[in-house]
Each structure stands twice: as C-alpha cells, then as structure tokens.
Amino acid sequence: MTVMVIEHLEDPGHTIANKMCKLLKVMYDTGVVTVDQLNTGFQRVYAIMPDLVIDVPHAYANLEAYAEICEKEHVFTKVLRSQLPSRVRKRFVSEGDGGRFKE
Hints:
The chain contains 5 helices and no strands. By secondary structure, the protein is an all-alpha fold.
C-alpha cells in the first residue's frame, strides 16, 4: 500500500488517488483492512515524507489532495487527518552564519 501512495505522489491528475481511495474503501467495507491497519499504513507514509520530498518536491501537496479524496469517501478518520504532516521550511539566520538553522 505504501508503494501505491508513493506512486500517487507523482500523479498530479489524481487518477491513481481516486482508484486507490476506492480500493481502500472496498477493502475497509469488506473487512480486509481494519481501522488500525489503515491508520498504521498512513502513519508510515507520514513518517517517510521528509525523505520522500527530496525526490518528489510536491509530495506534501499531493498527500493533502489524497487526504481530501479519502475524507470525502469516508476512508480517513478525523484523527488521521489531524496528524497529516505539513512541510516546514527551515530558513537560514543570515548568509554569514556558517550554515546554522534558525531556532
């Protein structure tokens, strides 16, 4: 499932996202996937986002769009949606600070 989410992050048309969401909905409705498994899977994706964004610059925006689709289909829980990460950009204090990050 994580591989499918990563593939979606490179799909700006959200066709894969819609199909993935429908698949998750069917799997959840039939009992193949439990709420705990669903939450664990999305939390794994959340955890790798800082590394993934290096290769897929718009990963956070695409994940947000996927979360919206899943929320409309009632696949996402409100708790899971509240844990959705957002990209935080660290800024340098100044040009002559030796590369330190602003605290």
